[in-house]
Amino acid sequence: MAPVSLRPQKTAMLVAQRIVADINRRGNTVGDRLPPERVMLDEYDVGRGTLRESLRFLELQGVISLKPGPGGGPVVQQPDATSLATTLTLLLQFENAPFRTVAEARAGLEPMMAQLAAERMSDEQLAALKSSVDTMHAHLGDQEVFLDENKRFHDIIAHGSGNAMFGYLIDALLGILDGSAIGIDYPEVRRSAVHKAHLQIYQALEARDPAASSAAMARHITEYLRYAERKFPEVLAAPIVWSNV
């Protein structure tokens, strides 16, 4: 049996890179339609199969959506952290890494994010953070609301750091380490403790105090790890698998 050539896959990737470069060059924004297939075939000088493979790859990455039917075709989208979460999950799964890996990564990253956010967060982001803290407090009896606000709180700080890498990393890590998905339960007394920690972090950020913000976040993540290790050690020790994303 002859070896399978990797040339078509390599060509499709190069075409995908050219398509993204042209999106940037033209200044396309979300919702813009890309040229029709016949134009792209001529422009990139490839076969229909290669072009469609390139477009499917970009669709999986969240760069475009493919609208079917007359008047359809590729439409520019805004990528999110979904593809990053999937890629990280697969990498960690093949390393047999436990969920503790993600929790430890947060412990290293989030204090730094909070330190930067104290200096860089906009007034609008601070207001959104206060809204999250208040909403969590008003719905402490509802775990679903608690989990939503817990994620929103950390997302706002990550993006408020002014470092896009941190924003996407936390989106991805929280997508992997979702307590409701992997079996970590939060009784109301624990939710109250998390709310108190969020309030302290918010107050340090509002005061624009980088050191206090970093320290408050470090305490919060450390307390979370201690709680999970004490109550749910088997969950943190469980191997990461793709189905949990």
TrEMBL record:
Entry keyword set: DNA-binding, Transcription, Transcription regulation
InterPro entries: GntR_C, TF_FadR/GntR_C, Tscrpt_reg_HTH_GntR, WH-like_DNA-bd_sf, WH_DNA-bd_sf
Gene3D superfamilies xref list: GntR ligand-binding domain-like, Winged helix-like DNA-binding domain superfamily/Winged helix DNA-binding domain
Superkingdom of origin organism: Bacteria
Sequence ranges assigned to domain HTH gntR-type in this UniProt record: 9-79
Statement: the UniProt record of this protein carries the keyword Protein transport: no
Keyword Transcription regulation: yes
Transmembrane segments: none
PANTHER family named in the record: TRANSCRIPTIONAL REGULATOR, GNTR FAMILY (PTHR43537), UXU OPERON TRANSCRIPTIONAL REGULATOR (PTHR43537:SF5)
Protein name according to UniProt: HTH gntR-type domain-containing protein
Lineage of source species: Bacteria, Bacillati, Actinomycetota, Actinomycetes, Streptosporangiales
